Amino acid sequence: MSDAPEKQLSQEGQPQFKRELRFLDSTAIVVGSMIGSGIFIVSADIARTVGSPGYLLVVWLLAGALTITAALSYGELAGMMPHAGGQYVYLREAYNPLVGFLYGWTLFLVIQSGTIAAVAVAFAKFTSVLLPGLGESQTAFSLGDFHVNVAQCVAIISIAILTAINLRGIHGGRIVQNLFTIAKVLALFGLILLGILFGRNHAAIAANVAAFWNASWTKVSAEGLLSRETLTGTGLLAALGVAMVGSLFSSDAWNNITFTAGEVVNPKRNIPLSLAAGTTIVTIIYLLANIAYLSLLPINGSPAGMDAATRGIQFAASDRVGTAAASVLLGSTAATVMALLIMISTFGCNNGLILSGARVSYAMANDGLFFTQCGTLNRKQVPGTALVIQAVWASLLCVSGTYGDLLDYVIFAVLVFYILTVAGIIILRRKRPDIDRPYRAFGYPLIPSLYILFAGAIALDLLVMKPRYTWPGVAIVLLGIPVYYTWTFIKRRNSLR
């Protein structure tokens, strides 16, 4: 296939997706969608859960290894079925339309829209660091007990701007994605190099080396009392599984490039390559960022500490480990520099999420499992209605303030859908052996099987250790079953008219 972008029209003259995303663009979507605000924050919670520099790095390394393994496996599915909707299509074909719908339902309801809302609010929070008048303490308007603050309005405006850009075609979304991804990757590498090579805090390094494998779980009670539980054996394994929630969430959204397969030039080649390259790049960045944190701050600290060094990674103010580490390097300007970096990071991240998420709604609508209008493209050859509905729902989640809880609830479900998708490779090898596979899963069947085993162990660990979060997620997914049958009933009834 030629690398030239192609403009497609169906036989009825209706606009079809325009293939304009090349390898660099596809990789930028993978990298840009993965790197949001998580890498600057979640290391604090991981540090409290495992309590040692060595295991902090192990948690990030395991998350990266699982992500890369899954991405290498998804490459086979992407090459087989280079269609808009990506993972939704893979699940539909490997299992049945119900399983595909449950994924698409959960993606629209919580996973994608909730992440868009969370990233938009993070963008707004760090905007208020530079412009305090746009903060959460400022009320925009009230209606009885219902209040909307200015930061929520900023979050909604950012979603609206990015949606408007993407409504005007894949070209604009591609340009925004490339610019913001390149900017944040360069800025991150700059801070990492400064931290590791020039800003090393010898006292912090000595403390971290001394406690490198001394695992402990640090807990703070509602009254502010601190307790540390030494971790060994099964207790350590359980803590590692719980700690991986943050690192896995920060490494998520790499699969979004599969949603845009209908717009990728030579998708059978470029999607597998971009999945492998993008996840590897982000894993390296995340590991280096945490090494930089450990070069600047001790892992252990106290919530009563008076500065970044005494609070440590565990108790960085508001869990903002990136800002705390930067303060060692940059002093009083750290907050401003990190606010700018995170604004760039979250804005670019949300562009990738908004661009790709609507393609799943488009695919579902074409299967008769979502609003019919979402299955059409506008004059700019993008799913305009799906983009607008996604933006409206994400904006409502911003105002509701529930997106954080919802995302906590579905991390278990997200992991289960990844497991099902990787298992789908094995199923499709038997179910459809003759289909063209331009790329075959690396290390098949060993590597995909290892992914299923380890990811399954983490999912089981979360089910036992964090039932408050996992069972509501299961309920959200299962709620899609009656919705599916209602939708198919209406579809059949309409077809008989």
How would you describe the overall organization of this protein?
This protein has 497 residues and is mainly α. It has one domain: Amino acid/polyamine transporter I (Up-down Bundle). It is 68% helix and 4% strand. The chain has 19 helices and four strands. The strands form two sheets. It has a two-stranded antiparallel ribbon. It has a two-stranded antiparallel ribbon with strand order 3-4. Helix 3 crosses helix 16 and helix 5 packs across helix 6. The protein is globular, with a radius of gyration of 22 Å. The chain starts with 22 loop residues before the first helix and ends with a helix. The N terminus is likely disordered.
Task: Give a short account of the largest sheet.
Answer: 2 strands, antiparallel
- Strand tally, please? 4
Order of helices and strands: HHHHHEEHHHEEHHHHHHHHHHH
Number of helices: 19
Fraction in beta strands: under 5%
Which residues sit in consecutive blocks of at least 5 with pLDDT less than 50?
Answer: 1-11
Give the overall average pLDDT: 89
Can you identify the CATH class?
Mainly Alpha
- What's the CATH H-level homologous superfamily? Amino acid/polyamine transporter I
Number of domains: 1
Helix content: 55-70%
What structural class results from the helix and strand content?
A: mainly alpha
